[in-house]
Amino acid sequence: MNNRSNAAKLFALAIAATALLAAPISYAEQQNVIEEVVVTARKTEESLLETPFAITALTAEDIELKGINELTDVVSFSPGFFYAESSVGKNSREHRRLIFRGMNPRTDLPHRAAATLFIDGASSLGAEFGAIENIERIEVLKGPQAAHFGRSTYAGAINIITKNPAEEFTARISADFGEYGHQRVGASVEGALTDWLSARATVSDYEMDGMYSNSTVAGEDLGARSTDDYSLTLFFQPSDSFDMKVRYHEWEDSDGPDAATLYDHRVGSGGEFHNCTGGGQISRYKEYSTEADLNFFSSFGAAPTVTPTFICGKVPEPRSSHIGMDTGSVRANQMRVNASTDWGLMPNAVVPDHFGLEREAEEISVVMNYNFDNGMNLNFIWAEHEDFYSTMNDLDRRETEGLYLLGLGGDMFGGFGANHPADAQDLRMNALEDSSWEIRLTSDRDKRFRWMIGYSDTELEFATQTTGSLIVYFPTDGIDNTMVEYPVNYNPFSIFSGAPTNINAGFGRSTSGDGVIWADVETTAVFGSIEFDVTDKLTLSLEVRRQDDEVTEGQYKYVFVPGDAEGAFHRPLLPRDDGLSDNFKSTLPRFIIDYKPFDETTIYASYSEGTRPGLFNASLSGLSPTELAQIKQQTGSGVEVDEEDSENIEIGLKTSFSEGRGFVTVTAYKTDVENVQSPIFAAAYTDDNGDAQVISGSIVGQGASAELSGIEVEGGYIFNDNWSAEFTYAYNTSEIGRGFFSADAFDILGDSNFVQGNPFSRYPENSGTVSIDYNMSLRAGWEMFARADVIYTDKMYASQANITHTGSGTKLNLRVGVTTGKFRAELYCLNCTDDRQPKGLQYLFDFSGISGAFGDVPGGLGNGRGLSIALADKAMVGFRASYTFGGGD
């Protein structure tokens, strides 16, 4: 029996059961109005419908009713916001991008992000926050927010406000069980300890088996996830004028292999869906099924040049035979075991003992408020966050164990070739730490002239290390002994460093960036705002931040030392280098005109500016001025890359009508982005000796432009005591302008400039939600409720080349249940239509080598790419219930 049939029958039984409890209805007289939501997006409390910029607020009640468990669920109810998986096709919780209004940041390095997550007003490096139980409100702020929130908010920000402990003793238990081994259980207890101190403690556990079977490893599911979460909050209020909240939170994630796959050109592996050629040229290896078939001496020299094929249009849904990873292979397990023992690992490294993700995260924060007798408020925030996580990955995302390739050709290596197995894995380790404090003084908000002034200091530390078996070779004896030799430093993030004399030496693993990439950032800022009520209806506001962003980026290096008797080489880390450092200074304003023509209506217009952090191209640091000039001609950048700038114009209308029974907000915006930072795989130059050279790796170009525009709408209406509805809609379009170098377009279309005029990839241009709620009184204080959410997501392109997309998707979520206020039970169905729109696509460098060699030299050949697919969540039926003890009537 399929999921849709299960869902229909269960819901029919639930509705029939609640109907038996129903008595003749005598509705109580009550005023059906939409409750006012108070937000703190401008660091002060104000009504959501009076805040003069685009913001979506989801309260604790919204979180409960809509079944929100993480930020991916917030996307459905916040127009203009999208939450993308790291390297889209991975489909993991490793590191995810906050995308606002189509502004894809084009990097997974968190210290270079375009948007930031804040928890109780303090910035957090990364976009994860653990369990949802402690959240009072989620504020989604769209457009540049630098004036109030500072660094890395030039596209938008998420501000999460956590719950204060209740004064009365209250305890709550909850449980949620569903298909595919889904279970989420939690408990909280809170209350006053003294007249001036209250506390809240929570614990929760989440488990999920995964929705897809790994066709390569019997009994293994792809997409399994688990989280253990704990928190403690103390709230001090010794007087009416002073309060302080101290919060500690920690959680651990342990996930299995990602629910993802990858299509290449071979029939049976996605090639049967290829229906077009893009125009690029690549070198492609010859395939063999066994080591014995390899000829170890005849392979050297460039591989044949071919025109790759692709999927134009909507990507077909993978069959079960397409979904399989080598997470149980001999080579994979060798890599998994030896990575933790043979290698010098970066500080704070978390090494998983399985394929998938391991995360250890914690945070601590202090928020203090003092209210003066004259109406002024002094606010202080201090916070520290740590997020250490690692993933073991089948990097080629499909079954390749036992497949071998003859020859490694391509422009990058001048026709050099070698034999290697196709299977590719890597271990990615990341360490994120931040510490921040902010002090702010705000005037009396009831005055006609209002002001705020503050100072903030934020320190960020980030490090990432990748080791793996990406491109490995066999020695002349034909023996697969790659695990007892030493590494080749090659992948898209580092230059090839194997000496020609070693081409038959049996290279083994590879590392990213010849060690560990690290970054230290310290950002200090003075900020403030002034507001003036010109009349009772017209208000002018000016917000400004003067920011000093000190960025230092560098590497740890490895050293080779002889290993054990079997010949293994260990690689301890040397002390990190001094790195490259500079200060990026900016002044970031926002000007707002706010007009209230009548009560419950706000019309506003605003102008704001934002910046994306500056950075460095470390791989260019050793070049001469003449060599750098050649690189700049191709990329627009040099060793130092300036900040990316945006200017945003926004107009909006917010109104409540029908005596508070309905509301609607409409926002239109236009954003011009200059000095766009774009990743470039390689650049060629002639050195000072007259020899041709290639620089490859994470080169970032600059100088391009882009334009974003769109409209965002939210609304709701209470029809009567029983029925209410909500809706959202967003049209977010983007256009890539001049000077944008796209490695995607070069590899697929044969020309990096073909992206001009295209929209950015990996986000939906159109999206929207329609929700209907029904409530009915039953006997003995019970109430029945039902809810339906229809969620539409437009197609999302796999690359800036805009040839392959996900197709559009429409999901239906249904909920029905009963509640007494303290007790709540709900039967639900998620994605009842079993929509299979992929979560994301990416034309990924195919590290197996099956799709082709690595080139990407201007004027030369491109890279072999495969289409990585993040698989959709299937339809799921579940049941959840909660009970609250105490807390008054």
Detailed description of the structure:
It is a single chain. With 889 residues, this protein is mainly beta. The protein has one domain: Beta Barrel (Maltoporin, Chain A). The strands form 12 sheets. It has a 22-stranded antiparallel β-barrel. A 5-stranded mixed sheet has the order 3-8-9-6-7. A hairpin with a 6-residue loop joins strand 1 (38-39) and strand 2. The two termini are 44 Å apart.
Report the span from N to C terminus. 44 Å
Shape from CA axes?
globular
Gyration radius, rounded:
28 Å
Q: What integer is the average pLDDT?
A: 83
Q: What structural class should be given to the helix and strand makeup?
A: mainly beta
Roughly what percent helix? under 10%
Biggest β-sheet strands, sense, barrel: 22 strands, antiparallel, barrel
CATH fold-type name:
Maltoporin, Chain A
Given this structure, which CATH class is correct?
Mainly Beta
> What count of structural domains?
1
**β-sheet strand percentage:** over 45%
Summarize this entry quickly.
The protein has 889 residues and is mainly β. The chain contains seven helices and 49 strands. It has one domain (3-886): Beta Barrel (Maltoporin, Chain A), CATH 2.40.170.20.
